[in-house]
Design a protein that fits this description.
By secondary structure, this protein is an alpha/beta fold. The protein has four domains: about 10-115 and about 260-385, 3-Layer(bba) Sandwich (FAD/NAD(P)-binding domain); about 125-260, 3-Layer(bba) Sandwich (FAD/NAD(P)-binding domain); about 415-565, 60s Ribosomal Protein L30, Chain: A, CATH 3.30.1330.10; about 565-755, PurM-like C-terminal domain (Phosphoribosyl-aminoimidazole Synthetase, Chain A, domain 2), CATH 3.90.650.10. It is about 35% helix and about 25% strand.
């Protein structure tokens, strides 16, 4: 390999997928910095554009039109995307602590997580009200609100606390949408009663009296009850209490009040203002930590205070990206002065808007059209991504390196093969020191007392079940990849009715400097060990080497009673076929490689892949499974044919009954298939009615290779319903009967597909 190729020297970690950070991703995608690895930690993989939220609520935009999908954008930027929530920053060790994964080290950190309404001092607000920020969580609550309104026969009373532009805009959007839905359902739109509460003497206090008077007119025309000059002092179930002693009966209370930041920022030792926002200078660098930056609502630019508005976060994107680059390579940062005034186009819910800037005010449908054009243009910048040419090599900025790092890079270029390619002992020791394999009494020699090999005891009367799996990473998150790889390897043992005993790891880690290799090993093996420990399998050793790509596999040993072994060849005529997980990983991750898969599709697929088959195997065995196998690289048809041949039977499969992962049909219909698909398609000769079956849109998914797929089990029909009930209760919500076993016929093709 080349001395400077694919070696990570510094980590830029971004917390939050806000408006500024999407600009940073785009900037680094257009102009990468060799040697810098980007990582985004995002609670939600689809980040809403605040400017389009009212339009989304009003029904003018669908979900994808109003959200930036962080996954293809991250891929464009060659950034890792970790779907998790930051809960603390360890500024001493320079690590981000997350809710559900190992700490993530950084060299430079940027924070763009927005804000949330103030609820302190208002009893009951946290329990009985819905904050409009974070927007992602509000979007989920909004759909639930719509369902409640449509299910309720009587009037529905909605109150918004906060009479600024955001509060007025969201209330009018809600009213417009709900009245429209009721009208479409043949019900009275008068059932919607709206209240607006604000502590200022008038609505939109940050704007001119001309703007305020226009909105007061609109609110009056729409029948909104306006309560100004009062504050919300208490929220109860169905009741809002005001500072003047009056109460309002409400079914829903939404908060669009003064902004605040999460407490963990201050708890992490950052310099914050009275509302918890990170104090930054004109370069957007933290006043207290020179390796931390912040932008958007979460930042308090001390020399240029501005209101918490999306327009300022958008404008900070470019200077933030520029200064992050400069900080990474040791260059002088450039100050940024935000504009004092910005054009505001405030919608009234019904494709009508009021425009204002510097005291000027005007209104009309044309201004909504203008706003729509601006918003769609901004979204297109981050959803319509250019094709980037592959570059043949890299050249590191000297600001990324020091003398010790340069020595490491030179040494990497001269790495030996064979045993010389092993990861260094010190690196492995540090990476594995915090990992705790599950203890077992039958492990005589393992990682607790390392030797040349592990020694395990086989209990009397048990047989050993051995399997091995190994594949390269298909995602950019080593922690999740470790989980998937471990589940995939364990599934063979579970499918045969055995319990896992031990595992040996076989890992390949990309070349790199020690600190980066160590973190990759720690992240990957942490994920794997969580799965192994949960399965009762003790990691007793393994082998880790350096290579071009991240890869992981396991040799797994299981134990079972001889008479309890489940084989592929036990299917009986009359049995039904149960599939425990949906299909689609092959086509979805093929689309993901092309940046054509939505983030929520990949998230759902990964959720399925990290779901262990352990309880599924227990479930089908408990209900008398005759035969079982796990669905992996050969696809459903390939593994089914193995069962059919071993059992001497025919099968009938209902294509329309196949459980399919979200997005898989869309990617298949787009012609995006796994590279292994053509090899699997050769098995079509096993299908009796191929001409008819191939017309079904689900037909290609019979050949789709699965990673950590579900189990296919043959069960007596009398037990099927109870089995499915237990499977669904155990978390296999897509488990279903997909076909039945038939007596063997004289036909050469044993499989019939019903479409």
């Amino acid at each position: 390999m080349k001395a400077n190729q694919d070696i990570i020297l510094k980590d830029l970690v971004m917390i939050g997928g806000g408006h500024s950070h999407v600009a940073v991703l785009k900037s680094f995608g257009m102009n990468p910095v060799p040697g810098v690895r980007l990582t985004m930690i995002a609670r939600d993989v689809h980040t809403p554009y605040s400017g389009m939220l009212p339009g989304y609520v009003a029904g003018h935009y669908d979900y994808d039109e109003a959200h930036v999908d962080l996954r293809p954008l991250s891929q464009f930027a060659s950034s890792r995307l970790f779907h998790d929530e930051a809960i603390k920053i360890d500024t001493v060790n320079k690590q981000v602590i997350c809710a559900g994964r190992p700490p993530i080290p950084y060299d430079v950190l940027s924070i763009n997580i927005g804000s949330r309404p103030q609820v302190k001092g208002v009893p009951g607000a946290e329990k009985w009200s819905t904050p409009v920020k974070p927007i992602n969580r509000f979007v989920d609550k909004w759909h639930q609100l719509v369902e409640r309104v449509m299910a309720q026969a009587g009037p529905h009373r909605i109150g918004v606390v906060g009479a600024g532009a955001a509060g007025v805009e969201i209330l009018l959007a809600i009213q417009f949408r709900l009245q429209g839905l009721l009208k479409d359902a043949g019900r009275s739109s008068e059932k919607i009663e709206c209240h607006l509460v604000g502590r200022s003497p008038r609505v939109l206090p940050a704007f001119s009296s001309s703007v305020a008077s226009r909105f007061e007119r609109v609110l009056s025309e729409r029948g909104v009850h306006v309560h100004c000059g009062v504050e919300a002092t208490r929220v109860d179930d169905g009741l809002l209490t005001l500072s003047n002693g009056k109460t309002i009966e409400l079914d829903e209370v939404l908060l669009v009040t003064g902004a605040s930041a999460p407490a963990w920022l201050e708890e992490s030792g950052l310099d914050v203002d009275e509302n918890g926002f990170i104090r930054v200078n004109d370069t957007l660098r933290s006043l207290s930590h020179e390796d931390i930056f912040a932008a958007g609502d979460v930042a308090d630019v001390v020399n240029h205070p501005r209101e918490k508005a999306g327009v300022f976060a958008v404008r900070q994107g470019k200077p933030l990206a520029d200064n992050l680059r400069r900080a990474l390579v040791g260059e002088t940062l450039k100050p940024f002065t935000p504009q004092k005034a910005a054009l505001a186009l405030i919608s009234t819910g019904d494709r009508y808007a009021i425009a204002t800037r510097a005291g000027f005010a005007a209104e009309g449908k044309a201004f909504w059209t203008w706003k729509d054009w601006i918003d769609r243009r901004w979204m297109a910048k981050y959803t319509e991504l250019p094709e980037m040419a592959d570059e043949a090599g890299s050249s590191y900025n000297l600001g990324l390196t020091n003398q010790d790092t340069l020595k490491e890079i030179s040494a990497i270029a001269m790495r030996c093969g064979g045993c010389g390619a092993k990861v260094g002992a010190n690196v492995l020791t540090r990476a594995l020191s915090e990992l705790k394999p599950a203890p077992r009494d039958d492990i005589l020699i393992g990682l607790h007392e390392p030797d040349d090999a592990a020694v395990v005891e086989v209990p009397p009367g048990k047989v050993m079940v051995h399997t091995v799996d190994y594949f390269r990473s298909f995602i950019d998150d080593p922690y999740i990849f470790g989980k998937v790889a471990a589940n995939h390897a364990l599934s063979d043992v579970f499918a045969m009715g055995a319990e896992a005993q031990t595992a040996l790891a076989i890992a390949t880690v990309p070349y790199g400097i020690e600190s980066k290799v160590e973190d990759t090993v720690k992240q990957m093996m942490s994920g794997a060990l969580e799965v192994l420990n949960a399965a009762g399998a003790t990691l007793v050793g393994g082998h880790t080497s350096e290579g071009a790509e991240l890869a992981l596999g396991f040799s797994v040993n299981g134990l079972a009673n001889r008479e309890d072994i489940l084989r592929k060849g036990g299917m009986k005529p009359g049995d039904v076929l149960i599939l425990t997980k949906p299909l689609g990983t092959g086509t979805l991750f093929a689309a993901d490689m092309q940046q054509k898969a939505k983030g929520r599709w990949i998230d759902a697929a990964l959720d399925s892949m990290v779901l262990s088959n352990h309880d599924a195997a227990k479930g089908v065995y408990r209900h008398g499974a005759q035969a079982c196998t796990d669905i992996t690289g050969f696809g459903l048809l390939g593994h089914m044919v193995e069962m059919v041949k071993g059992s001497g039977v025919d099968v009938e499969v209902d294509l329309n009954a196949l459980p399919i992962m979200d997005g898989a049909m869309e990617t298949v219909q787009a012609g995006i298939l796994s590279s292994l698909q053509p090899a699997n398609v050769r098995l079509r000769r096993a299908i009796r009615n191929i001409e008819e079956a191939s017309k079904n849109e689900r037909y290609p998914l019979m050949f789709d290779p699965q990673t950590s797929g579900g189990l296919l089990a043959s069960i007596h029909p009398d037990h099927a319903e109870a089995c499915l009930t237990d499977l669904k209760a155990a978390g296999y919500v897509h488990a279903t009967v997909i076909g039945k076993v038939l007596a063997e016929t004289d036909h050469l093709e044993p499989v019939t597909l019903i479409s």
